[in-house]
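Justification of resources, computational component.

The compute hours requested in this renewal are based largely on the per-chain cost of generating structure records like the one below. Each record pairs the submitted sequence with a full structure-token output. That output is archived, and it is also reused by downstream analysis tasks.
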Amino acid sequence: MEIAEKSGLTADMLKVFETLPNMYLILSPDLMILTASQAYLTAVNKKSTDVQGKFIFDVFYQDNDMPGLTDIQTSLQQVLHTKKAHQLPVTRYDLPDPADKQRLLERYWLSSHTPVLNTDGQISYIIHQTENVTDLIFTEHKAKAVLRPPSNEMTLSEQRFAFLLNAMPQQVWTARPDGTLDYVNEFSCTYFGKDINYITDHGWQAFVHPQDIDACLKTWQTALETGKEYMVEFRLQMHTGAYKWHLGRAVPLIENGQTTLWLGTNINIDLQKNNEQKKDEFLSIASHELKTPLTSIKAFNQLMQRTSDPEKLNSFIHKSAERIFRLEKLINDLLDVTRINAGKMIYNLEEFNFSQMLRDSIESVQYTSPSHQISLECENEVLYTGDRFRIEQVVNNFLTNAIKYSPGADKILVKSSIQLQNIILSVQDFGIGIPEQELDRLFERYYRADNSAMRFEGLGLGLFISSEILKGHQGSFWIESEPDQGSTFYFRLPLPSPENVGPEANENHFYKDNTISITYNPDKQRLEVDWLGFQNLETVQHGCQLLADRLQKTKVHKILNDNNHVLGTWSEASEWVGKSGFPMLEKSGLQYFAWVFSPIAFSQLSARKSVDIAEGNVITQLFTDLPSARKWLDSK
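The structure output for this chain reads:
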């Protein structure tokens, strides 16, 4: 009971969980069983005194060969690391027949783990839910039997018809002349997580979104009365609980002038609907943003026609020119996105003075934005080979954004330096800042951080275009920000490397170059890796291959992965690490991976993404300091 109280569970709450009709285990953060529902205890033939206060794997999963054991362990580790719910795949685990203990009954289970967080964002307890889905699996097996050779129970034509419908990679259904649903194909059963009897008994009304049901039924009734094609767009609830847009369509089979059958399909059009919504939103924003400067230009032109005062005339001309420049920028942004989409963004590479380009850009922006004082710290003059116009476009975008999103401040700090053979530029403002959850979305097309206190003009294209320009120069970008404190936007452009110095290596499995250091710790039986400087897809792939080679040589199963010295971002490699890097290391023997965060927010986002999508069974834990990571690995 003491453990339960620490998890914020009262005696009444525990009683509620125990009496629930479904199969539940309530676990503490260290995976001790706080309580179990009676349904769970009955299914496994145990009493509450047999399980309470005990480690879950000492009670229910003692058999190391049990199907799905690794999935359960990995799922719980993932929940502890990410603090997010996780659902496991369907697993077969047979149970003794109550009438005959020597006989096992075939059973299938669907399990999930859901963390409950306290006010500090930490896990209070975990709900382990298990559902018996044996009936659903048996129903699917029966449905698949339709694909077998013809039998006495089904004619050859019926077999072929069922085969064709089940082979369709979309929902196919039939209805009687009066509209009663009488068949759905195998794909439909899988999509909705229900057997054919449930779907035909309840009809589509059980799955249609409440807001769409009236229009759907009205259109269906009209089709039944007229005998004409039925077509409707509606949202259907899939087995996960989420609603997706579908195009429902059915045509009547008419024999001897009478409708004898309706054959229908439901096609998932959720992606198209979302794209249409985004397009409509963009067109709305674009029309508004383009209209604003155009309206101002027309107004100033009318004022110029009506005045003969030279001073006022010059003022109107200047203000009109500003609006024309703004309109031109919006149009150019749209043209750039079109070029990027078509893969036709062309770069004119030539050597230029980067520092002078930077001073020119600041002078131009400063002239049009007297409200902010832009200061520059430039460590040294540097020549760079690239497209000066496009790089200047990135700098201008960073500067204008800094000014736009700091209306209550009066200064912008720009710094330029050379770090590890890279030009590093930073633009710091002291404005509204950006929440962490929006940082990695800022460079998406048409995305603008939403701030309820104010709205800012723009199409949301500038940072997306900037990111593509930097990628075209093998560069990268990242952001450090804090709400109400301001933001610092960075970008990196690589310079030609000097003569390469060969990597250090010796018989003790030590390796070091300018991007990674790997040490074999024989006392702790692990590899200790320190990633250095700026990383990209190439360096990350190279480093992971080195680790895989040394795992095989040393026969160890643990890695201490230190990102403390990683700079900038390596987002371009995060997906590869999760889907290819982890499986490669696991194949080489890796079982436990302690990952110490970089202090850079964008590097942390990349690490989290890699862990979230990681494939395989490597148990990974994220840390903010090395001592905690070492302690965790020492316990393994």
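The domain at 504-634 is CATH 3.40.50.10600 (Rossmann fold). The first helix runs from residue 2 to 6.
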